[in-house]
Design goal:
The complex is a heterodimer. Chain A has 3 helices and 2 strands. By secondary structure, chain A is an alpha+beta fold. In chain A, strand 1 and strand 2 form a beta hairpin. Chain A is elongated, with a radius of gyration of 20 Å. The longest helix of chain B has 35 residues. The chains are: A alpha+beta, B alpha+beta. At the A-B interface, helix 3 of A face loops of B.
């Protein structure tokens, strides 16, 4: 009987050909959804797409963008926010 | 957009910081200074405010620091670290004698341990005597 986790689609399947010629399915954890802007829900750039535990091991520059609200708001939304404050 | 106009930077790592237009460069580009670094900047990346201060075109950074302090904004100048010379790579011929020297140090170290061990034995012998 196959393991339950392998039957469910929570794991991503990749079909690989082994050196001996057999075809095997490999099971992997799926990637989490990409980080999104808090206001316009657009996908953010420059933030690596990993599970939070693995994200912690990365350098800070790969987790955020060097800008106020970087990694939280997209560029256009930050511009609008700062403009509104200035006026 | 004229010299002396106070702006707020919108884009980049200096976003949300106040700056002054120091000079007008090519079409659509200005020189800014203030809380941000002194740098060339696209006009689309700054938001002008109502206030204008009196400075000459191409004013010094020291002048701008004084003007900002009048407005109640203290500018902190970050000092760049002094340059340290990188260790230069030695040629292969130079490396070989260095390795030999290291080995000599290793050989000396165990000899010292042996010397230390000897006095300990003597101490143990001394202790029973007073008893």
């Amino acid at each position: 009987m196959v393991e339950g986790k392998k039957k469910s689609r929570s794991l991503k399947r990749t079909v690989r050909k082994t050196p001996s010629g057999k075809v095997k399915t490999h099971y992997k954890r799926r990637k989490p959804s990409a980080a999104k802007c808090a206001e316009c829900k657009e996908e953010l750039q420059g933030i690596s797409r990993l599970r939070s535990a693995k994200l912690r091991n990365l350098p800070k520059c790969k987790r955020t963008v060097a800008r106020p609200f970087g990694g939280n708001l997209c560029t256009s939304c930050t511009r609008n926010l700062i403009k509104q404050k200035a006026r | 957009m004229e010299v002396g106009r106070i702006c707020i930077k919108i884009a980049g790592r200096d976003a949300n910081k106040k700056c002054v237009i120091v000079d007008e460069l090519d079409k659509g580009f200005v020189m800014i200074d203030g809380e941000t670094r002194r740098r060339k900047c696209n006009v689309n990346h700054i938001e002008p405010t109502e206030t204008v201060i009196e400075i000459t075109k191409g004013a010094d950074h020291a002048v701008i620091v004084a003007e900002f302090s009048k407005m109640g904004i203290e500018l902190v100048d970050k000092k760049s670290k002094p340059k340290t010379e990188r260790p230069k790579r030695q040629k292969k011929a130079d490396k070989k004698p260095a390795k030999v020297a290291k080995k000599k140090v290793v050989k000396e170290a165990p000899k010292k341990e042996v010397k230390k061990a000897e006095p300990k034995v003597e101490e143990k012998v001394e202790k029973p005597q007073p008893m």
